[in-house]
C-alpha cells in the first residue's frame, strides 16, 4: 500500500493491468453480483431529481423495479445501492446488441441529465471503503473481468491509467498527478531492485 493524503492505495493499481473489453464480457458487471451498484448520498439525491429524464431510457422491467423499490435500497451490508430486477441485473441496466449498458449513462450521453452514473460503477475495478480517518482504494479482481485483464495486459495498461477519467472525477486532477508520481517512483525502485539482482 502507499498513502496519498488520507487515502491508502493498493499497489495493484500500479502493478495490475486492465482495460474493459465489452465485446467479450458483454457488460456482465451490470448483471452479476449480490447487490446493485453502491451509491453515495449525493448520488441518491441526484437520481431522485433526474429520474423522470432517465425513465425513457429504461427497459420496462427496470422501470417496474424502480417504481416498486425506489432509486435505491439497502443491501445485506446496510449500504445504499441501486435496486435489482428480480434479484439479478441492476434496474438501470439496458441491452443493445447483447451488450449491457447503463441507462443513466445513456441519458447523460444524450444530454438529458447532468449525472453520468454512480462513481462506484465509473471507478470499477477500483472499490473504495471509507473509514473514520482514511479511505482505502483497492483493486477488485472479479472472474467475469478476465477478458479485461487479458486486454489490459496486451496493452500494458495499468489499472490507474485505465481509470484516469473516473479517478479525476472522484478525487481531482492533483490526486491523479500524485498517482503518476508514485508510479514513477515504484518503477524506479523496481528497476533498482532488478539491477541489484543482476
Describe this structure in words.
With 198 residues, the protein is α+β, with helices and mostly antiparallel strands. It has two domains: 1-18 and 125-198, no CATH class; 26-118, no CATH class. 46% of the residues lie in helices and 14% in strands. The chain contains ten helices and eight strands. It has helices at residues 12-15, 22-25, 41-54, 60-69, 103-109, 119-123, 146-155, 159-162, 164-171, 173-197; strands spanning 2-4, 7-9, 73-74, 80-81, 93-96, 99-102, 126-130, 135-139. A four-stranded mixed beta sheet has the order 1-2-8-7, covered by helices on one side. A two-stranded antiparallel sheet has the order 3-4. It has a two-stranded antiparallel sheet with strand order 5-6. Strand 5 and strand 6 form a beta hairpin. The two termini are 26 Å apart. The mean pLDDT is 93.
> How many separate domains make up the residues?
2
Query: Average pLDDT across residues?
Result: 93
Structural class: alpha+beta
Rg for CA atoms: 18 Å
**What fraction strand?**
5-15%
Number of strands: 8
How many H/I helices?
10
**How would you characterize the largest beta sheet?**
4 strands, mixed
Low-confidence stretches: none
Distance from N terminus to C terminus (CA atoms, Å) equals 26 Å
Order of helices and strands: EEHHHHEEEEHHEEHHHH
Strand order of the largest sheet: 1-2-8-7
- Helix share bin: 40-55%
Which geometry do the CA atoms define? globular
Amino acid at each position: 500500500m502507499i498513502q496519498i493524503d488520507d487515502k491508502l492505495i493498493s499497489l495493484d493499481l500500479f502493478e495490475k493491468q486492465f482495460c474493459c473489453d465489452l465485446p467479450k464480457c458483454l457488460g456482465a458487471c451490470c448483471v452479476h453480483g449480490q447487490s446493485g451498484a453502491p451509491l453515495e448520498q449525493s448520488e441518491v439525491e441526484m437520481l431522485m431529481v433526474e429520474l423522470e429524464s432517465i425513465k425513457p431510457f429504461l427497459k420496462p422491467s427496470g422501470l417496474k423495479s424502480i417504481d416498486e423499490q425506489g432509486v435505491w435500497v439497502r443491501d445485506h451490508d446496510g449500504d445504499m445501492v441501486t435496486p435489482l430486477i428480480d434479484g439479478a441485473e441492476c434496474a438501470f441496466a439496458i441491452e443493445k446488441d447483447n451488450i449491457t449498458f447503463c441507462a443513466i449513462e445513456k441519458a447523460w450521453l444524450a444530454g438529458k441529465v447532468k449525472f453520468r452514473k454512480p462513481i462506484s460503477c465509473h471507478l470499477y475495478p477500483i472499490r473504495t471503503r471509507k473509514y473514520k480517518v482514511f479511505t482505502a482504494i483497492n483493486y477488485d479482481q472479479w472472474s467475469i473481468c478476465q477478458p479485461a485483464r487479458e486486454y489490459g495486459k496486451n496493452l500494458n495498461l495499468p489499472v490507474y491509467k485505465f481509470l484516469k477519467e473516473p479517478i479525476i472525477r472522484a478525487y481531482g486532477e492533483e490526486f491523479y498527478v500524485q498517482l503518476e508520481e508514485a508510479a514513477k517512483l515504484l518503477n524506479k525502485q523496481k528497476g533498482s531492485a532488478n539491477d541489484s539482482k543482476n
